[in-house]
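Appendix B, example 12.
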Amino acid sequence: MDETLICRRDLDFQLYEVLDAERLIQRERYREHGRETFDAAVETARQIAAEQFAPHNRKGDEHEPAFVDGRARTIPETKAAWRAYAEAGFLAAHHDAAAGGMQLPALIQQACQAHFYAANIATTAYPMLTIAAGNLLRAHGSEAQKARWLPPLLDGRFAGTMALTEPHAGSSLGDLRTRAIPQDDGTYRIVGNKIYISGGDQDITDNIVHMVIARIQGAPPGVKGISLFIVPRYRLDERGEPAEDNDVALAGLLHKMGYRGTTSTVLNFGDRGDCHGYLVGEPNKGLAYMFHMMNEARIGVGVGAAMLGYTGYLHSLAFARQRPQGRPVTAKGEGPQVAIIRHPDVRRMLLAQKAYAEGGMALCLYAAALFDDSTTAPEPEQRREAQELLDLLTPVVKAWTAEYGCRANDLAIQVLGGSGYTRDYPVEQFYRDNRLNPIHEGTNGIQALDLLGRKMHHNGGAGFRALLARVDATIDEARGLETAAPLADALRQARSTVAATADTLGEAFATHGPERVLANASVYLDLVGRFVVAWLWLRQARVAAAALADGVSGAEEGFYRGKLQAARYYVDWELPHIEQQGRLLCRLDDTCLGMQEDWF
């Protein structure tokens, strides 16, 4: 099977040696599962990704969706891949068996999903959004709404979207203008415009279920007056089948540098005054409901960004192994050429990619494991702590992977040299695709504000305390292993910097106000991200060191030594940056804040 998607040995290492996925089968919800069913799901995903998604990744990029007679038209391979995905049950994988699902843990579901992102992120965006829309309805919809809309979302007849952004408002959702006009029958008429709606129109499903935020007439201004509505492309008849057009018009398609196979749409709701919307939950609480889908989408963006970095790394590694060029400096220009992987600077770039890619996958899978613990851990305190930590790490998962997945893809291009920036090789597309992720689902700057302005202080900083406690436990475990101990000592020093910086900034909110503190929030996000990924690398290094101490040999020895070397790279080359970042943050540097508009 194609090892340019994900290294299966690494995935098994993460799932079973680091995260101990088999512990989940002790929980009531997953008792019907075992290592065999987990592996079967992953292998099915790998096969479908390789056979149905990867082959049209380039074609979808070169032949992006077209606007034809008022509708979006995609290449036929997109629909075929969607059907294969849906028929294998991945849209409903985590749902109850009684609802047609597999009751897979989120950890295994994300391991499966990772293959699709690596194979074709543009086509995978359609099921990712549909899964998130279904989860939103399951959590906040009425029983009647769930009965009507969930089955066709889970079996793939309908797709889902999230319709938030408006042309004049961007990420400032409190400024939305889309209106919801109450009707005597309890429905609403939706009137407004949305932009950048991924999957907002397509020809791969029978219907599209838009999750739309709008303001009911007379609602309070700002975010306190936002409500959430189900707005289908077609209204349903008595049998639940698509029937009347619901006055949702495709106004245009946007043309992106990457993710070209995913439609990015401008939608007009209610041009004819006949767009029916169905209120989800209570009025004026829509943004809180929508955050359920937004946070899930942020994790999805993180997984996609990590996997684009990962597949780019594997492609550049394969190229470096087979591309002959130059000779070692000690050869003095004599003898045969050697593969470029023999050159130290190429190994530097590959090692950096390995650290970013495998670290990013570790971060995303850890978040999935936290979700499982937040919903199925046996003790209420375990569930509460896991939820606090997941809330804290969500902006990190989204932003760190987007930032460093792009860096990995940039390095992949560099490894290929002149071939890297040609369209004859896929790494330039991976970079273009990934460059959207620092913007998708809230820019990295917005994630930084979320982390420092809200998540750090939520519930008295419970999530941050839980993080530090888990870091301390890993440090203590790793210090007992000779090859991991130096890494543990370095992380302990970094832990002091991270804790002291958090304390200083927490106090500064009261003494200097939020503007001065949040001006450098992006630096803080990067500091926390570096620290968390270094910790996750130490977790991997501890397992690898223990395996080597047990005397493994051959290919297994090489695998574990590679893990230790990548951990060493991250701790020695990447983690030290937080010292300078901590100093800048603690002195509340105002260089950027103080720059005046007319000085540019």
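Residues 286-322 form the longest helix (37 residues). The radius of gyration is 24 Å.
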